Amino acid sequence: MAAISFDPSINVQVNQKSHGVLVEEIEGLIRVHKNGHVERPPTIPIVPCTATSGVTAKDIVIDKFTGLWTRIYVPNYSNKMPLLIYFHGGGFCVGSAAWSCYHEFLSGLASKAGCIIFSVNYRLAPENRLPAAYDDGIETLMWVKQQALSGSNEHKWWLSQSDLSSLFLAGDSAGANIAYNVATRLGSHGGTSASSGMKPLVVKGSILIQPFFGGESRTATEMHATPQVTSALTLPASDAYWRLSLPFGSNRDHPWCNPLANGTPKLRELRLPPTMMCVSEMDILKDRNMGFCNALGGAGKRVETKIYKGVGHAFQILHNSPSSHIRTQEMISHIKTFINQ
């Protein structure tokens, strides 16, 4: 997720003189000063971890030294359920597993799709540039693996209901980028699949919702798309996020931003699980997402593409168009089918 419409009345007043020159700003979401000071106005409410109808939710610290934690959602089902490791969006720079919009979406997804969800609160850029978020993704998986191997009584409340042989990496926008890059790391560790070395965990697939990729060359939808009030991503915001999150000195053809920069032969060599790609019709990333789907298919990877008509980037989180709720229910239905096939 990127630029979000907001109410200026709740914007935080800042004494810019105390922090020097403002070098980057995405209105309503983040300000970065030359001295390194970062401000994130509370545009979207943070909500406590409260149980919702039919779903138990708890916050668990994974690494107290880096601050990595996760919000776990366990629906009230008697049978074992697939496990989703979910990464929120926000251009790598903003967002939280405690944002109200993610708490609402993921508690609903857990209940309706019948799955346990780990919503990962990874480190943010620019204080922690990439690959920090990818490292946190891997650390989360290794932590889950450790709890499974130890048979932890403390975590029995979710472990006993998790089908560890049916684990999925998922996320939206920057979170989908994280899910993809975590999958590529797992697939590069040797063995025959993305699950090699992860037993008893078996990575069965990836769910990439409007994945946040980029490139130095613009696509048609990036250049010519009419700004949409129903879409959360603009090209200037996209560029700003990449400037803040990529390693210093990198451009948008860095492989973490543009996985197709070196062509598709590299894709062919990767061991990736089956992928479900969710693309929004009104998203500036539509062409880039579709091109990535085609490249995956051309490289012999299993990919399912779902296109959501009449909605923009992060519609499932923002609910800012009349059709967004309908399309969100479609997406949840597609995810449920994908994780249970």
As a percent range, the share of helical residues equals 25-40%
- Tell me the β content: 15-25%
SSE arrangement, N to C: EEEEEEHEHHEHEHHHEHEHH
Mean pLDDT: 91
- Supply the number of helical segments: 10
Q: Which architecture name does CATH use?
A: 3-Layer(aba) Sandwich
Broad CATH class:
Alpha Beta
Low-confidence segments, given as residue ranges, are 1-16
Say what the CATH topology is.
Rossmann fold
How does this model look, in words?
The protein is α/β, with parallel strands linked by helices and 341 residues long. It has one domain: Rossmann fold. The protein is 31% helix and 21% strand. β6, α1 and β7 form a beta-alpha-beta unit. α2 (132-150) packs across α4. The radius of gyration is 19 Å and the shape is globular. 45% of the residues are buried.
Can you give me a brief rundown of this structure?
One of its GO terms (molecular function) is hydrolase activity. Helix content is 31%, strand content 21%.
